[in-house]
Design brief:
Mean pLDDT: 93
Strand content: 15-25%
Number of helices: 27
Number of strands: 37
Structural class: alpha+beta
Helix content: 25-40%
């Protein structure tokens, strides 16, 4: 055994042995209980970052721990390989996205292997592989047959310069990221999945999941179940006449604006109504009204997402058209509001500025009437400024027949009256909207639909799947290349054999990530999934960032339920437990360049000064001493040069040091701040562990302790060891607190290093301590642990070892240590027999030198004994 720890001499050999023996290939059937742990598959952006290292090391540690605990454990890996970044890279580098993606996958796979993660590579998938996306297409067609997929017009961001649709993140301050053109909102035909049909089940089944409550609440809020009243504000006569042409089939009876509210008790406070810019009433009102037409066009250039609407300035313009109050017949003016989304409800809202903060601000801005109709006892109402309590429930006032009613009673009475008048009814509404899955992009799963001028939309027959994406195209940013490639879109109709055109849209990449974890179970299946998915599913632990708490997790849950209903799987939920790991942050340093841009500097190029509290107060470049700005902490980013390349860490310190550092720094759910000094400290600890084993085995191998007389020092050490085994097992398994597990092992080894005895029995106890310490740390640092185990137990392999068991006898103590206090202040410690009585404990405390000193000859008023913890002498 080398006297020094050299990671480069250890890790490649260990990894080679794992590969040769297929150490991590999991069988698809076993008498052992299964444990299926998956981290959200990465996007192949080019290189792993330290966030990946943290994520997959958590996964890996759980894999090893559960395997040692006797489980048939599985940790697979794949690549979320379709998406916009590949198209952007292709535009920049003038190469096909396919080449960029596959090259990145190859490099990142090498990085994963260098980290030593226990990945079963026989199950590797890439979502851009036709063998995978064939089944996404097949399932799309099955959902279409069941009515769970449908087509309608949808609103998108349209770049008029590039003549293409942009994702929300490509719209910056209302302009296209590439062209700078003002973005428009356009309606185009799009495919949708009917996720709303599962809204109740998606909501109700959250309660049984082992997920963080924060994530479950985020999903509840997104689904947004609300009970309220849907009713019609009838059109005023002139408005009805003008809108009649808009409803030739008489679908709106009586004609009017359909709205939904959870606060029907405030209906008598309606003073105006608002519609979306795309609403038919807005279009009718804009005829002959140039100012309104211009305002509507301005609204159409705004965002199409709720998050954008919530933060932007609320603007509106009167239409000159009116509706009538359903009870009072009072005329109510209709406005176009930029905050009303056509995609939500009917694109119209009632406005009660007296009891809604947004409506209040809008009414004040445009000097519209505000009416109080709810009174909260003891709180005076004023039109001068908004108060939060204006939205609180109370009793109705100035509400005619509803005066004096509580909120619940008023809502019920209003709903009854509306239903009797044929104008409305109570109903449940959801914030959740159907999932728009069409993307006007190239690098994605082709939608398996043929558009025939005679037959309409026709599904591609199963025996013609997959519809393969051409991999040699290079996008230029001016729309999808698929729409410009006749060899792709020209085809024949599967029904009539006449000339037809393929749908040139592709599927949202959330489709690709909604079921990959099932395909891991059966990557070579001749069907979408087979019985192996039933064996492995649901996941026992799913790991990923909280940024995926809503959409990805929600879509995956919907997809699983839809697969269940089509008889493909028997499970209701895909992820039994969820761990959301925190981000890895680093310091950001910059200065404004002469051209007006910002120049960033890597932290290792910078020398900092700190204030009295140890916080960074100033920064300068090491190269020339010039001052630069400190921007604070932020996520690691290539553009801001504050990232840390895992490959550089592996080259300098080895994979185990990187793994150890990201696990010992913080609880896995907490944000972690990168520290080069702490990385070096982690390497120092592993060197020290190596040295302890070297010192133990150099004189010769001994058997671990199992019986014999022990000194009190050895008993204390074994007690510490087995308490540590107990704690670490709980930290890994139940608490998922790897940092405290590492701290416990370090504390135990610190005690071990104080051991001076070198008798045969002491060496046997030392052997026990070191063997178990190596086993306890092995899920986190498997390379060095494997090498050290071979030295401690020649002829055996660590990968075959079970989790160390707790020796109950070692936990039995002859004596215990108690805290000694005088008047509640710590003054020392005493050791007493575990069988000592209260009087014996009190006597031992009174005899302690610190008590004698601080009592100063006074007779104690009382002695308080807290069994197993402390003695407090009150003088």
């Amino acid at each position: 055994m080398d006297s020094q720890y050299h990671p480069k001499a250890v890790e490649p050999g260990v990894q080679k042995r794992w590969a040769e023996t297929r150490a991590f290939a999991a069988p698809d059937a076993s008498p052992k209980p299964k444990y299926y742990v998956v981290s959200m598959l990465p996007y192949p952006s080019g290189k792993l970052h330290m966030g990946h290292v943290r994520n997959y090391t958590i996964n890996d540690a759980l894999y090893h721990f559960m395997r040692m605990k006797g489980f048939n454990a599985l940790m697979p890996m794949g690549w979320d390989a379709f998406g916009l970044p590949a198209e952007n890279a292709a535009i920049a580098n003038k190469v096909p996205p396919a080449k960029w993606t596959w090259d990145n996958i190859a490099y990142m796979k090498q990085q994963c292997q260098a980290m030593g993660w226990a990945i079963d590579w026989t199950r590797e998938i890439a979502t851009c592989s036709p063998a995978y996306y064939r089944w996404s297409q097949w399932f799309f067609l099955r959902l279409w047959e069941k009515g769970l997929v449908y087509k309608k017009t949808g609103v998108v961001n349209w770049d008029p310069a590039d003549m293409t649709v942009l994702a929300n993140e490509q719209v910056i301050d209302g302009r296209g990221w590439r062209t700078g053109a003002v973005i428009e909102k356009r309606e185009i035909p799009m495919w949708y999945m009917r996720i709303t049909q599962y809204a109740d089940e998606l909501l109700d089944s959250l309660d049984g999941l082992g997920w963080p409550e924060q994530v479950k609440q985020m999903q509840r809020n997104w689904i947004g179940r609300s009970e309220g009243v849907e009713f019609t504000l009838p059109y005023e006569a002139e408005t009805a006449r003008r809108m009649a042409d808009r409803h030739p089939d008489g679908t709106v009876k009586p004609p009017g604006l359909k709205v939904f509210t959870t606060r029907a008790d405030t209906i008598m406070g309606i003073t105006f109504a608002a519609v979306a810019a795309e609403h038919p009433l807005a279009a009718e009102a804009a005829k002959g009204n140039a100012a309104l037409a211009a305002f509507i066009e301005e609204c159409r250039k705004g965002g199409v997402q709720e998050a954008e609407i919530a933060t932007m300035e609320k603007k509106g313009m009167a239409t000159g058209l009116f509706v009538r109050h359903p009870f009072t017949d009072e005329k109510i003016e209709v406005w176009v509001g930029n905050y009303v989304l056509m995609g939500y409800g009917e694109g119209a809202v009632m406005a009660v500025p007296g009891h809604d903060e947004r409506d209040f601000a809008f009414a004040k801005k445009y000097r519209l009437p505000i009416k109080q109709v709810i009174d909260v006892e003891g709180k005076p109402y004023s039109l001068d400024a908004w108060e939060a309590w204006y939205e609180e429930p109370g009793r109705n006032v100035d509400s005619g027949p509803y005066d004096g009613l509580t909120q619940a009673a008023a809502i019920e009475a209003v709903a009854t009256a509306l239903e009797k008048a044929g104008l409305g009814r109570k109903r449940v509404q959801y914030r959740l909207r159907d999932w728009g899955i069409s993307r006007q992009r190239y690098w994605g799963t082709p939608i398996p639909i043929v558009q025939c001028p005679k037959c309409g939309d026709v599904g591609v027959p199963d025996d013609q799947l997959p519809v393969k994406l051409p991999e040699d195209l290079v996008p230029d940013g001016t729309g999808s290349p698929l729409a410009k490639t006749p060899s792709f879109y020209e085809t024949k109709c599967p029904k009539c054999a006449g000339p037809a055109k393929r749908d040139t849209d592709t599927l949202d990449t959330f489709v690709d990530s909604s079921w990959y974890f099932m395909r891991y179970a059966c990557p070579d299946a001749s069907t979408m999934v087979d019985e192996r998915a039933q064996y492995w599913m649901p996941l026992d632990m799913y790991i990923g960032g909280i940024e995926h708490a809503i959409l990805h997790l929600l879509y995956a849950r919907f997809w699983t339920k839809a697969m269940r209903d089509l008889g493909l799987v028997k499970i209701d939920e895909p992820f039994a437990n969820l761990l959301t790991q925190g981000m890895v942050l680093n310091h950001i340093f910059s200065r404004r360049a002469g051209t007006g841009g910002v120049e960033y500097f890597a932290p290792d190029e910078v020398e900092t000064t700190a204030d009295a509290e140890g916080k960074i107060a100033g920064a300068k470049l090491k190269s020339d001493g010039s001052a630069i700005e400190y921007e604070g902490l932020g996520t690691m980013s290539k553009s801001k040069r504050n990232g840390v390349d895992p490959q550089e860490m592996v080259e300098k310190y080895g994979a185990d040091t990187s793994r150890f550092y990201v696990m010992q720094a913080n609880p896995p759910t907490d944000t972690m701040i990168w520290s080069d000094q702490s990385v070096a400290g982690s390497f120092k600890f592993l060197r020290g562990l190596w040295a302890l084993v070297y010192e133990q085995v150099t004189p010769g191998i001994v058997a671990r302790y199992h019986e014999g007389e022990l000194t009190s020092e050895l008993k204390a050490l074994r007690l510490k060891l087995h308490r540590t085994i107990e704690k670490v097992g709980d930290d890994y398994g139940r608490r998922l607190q790897f940092n405290t597990a590492i701290a416990a092992v370090r504390e135990m080894l610190n005690l071990f290093e104080t051991l001076k005895e070198r008798s045969p029995v002491a060496r046997a106890v030392a052997q026990e301590v070191l063997e178990d310490a190596v086993l306890l740390l092995s899920p986190i640092v498997p390379h060095i642990a494997t090498a050290l185990w071979r030295e401690l137990r020649p002829g055996t392999e660590l990968i075959d070892q079970p989790w160390p068991s707790v020796d109950a006898a070692a936990l039995v103590q002859d004596s215990i240590e108690l805290v000694v206090q005088v008047n509640g202040k710590l003054r020392g410690h005493i050791h007493v027999s575990t069988t000592a009585s209260r009087d014996q404990i009190a006597a031992a405390a009174m005899a302690h030198e610190a008590v004698v000193k601080f009592a100063a000859g006074q007779t104690p008023k009382k002695v308080v004994v807290v069994p197993g913890r402390l003695v407090n002498v009150v003088v």
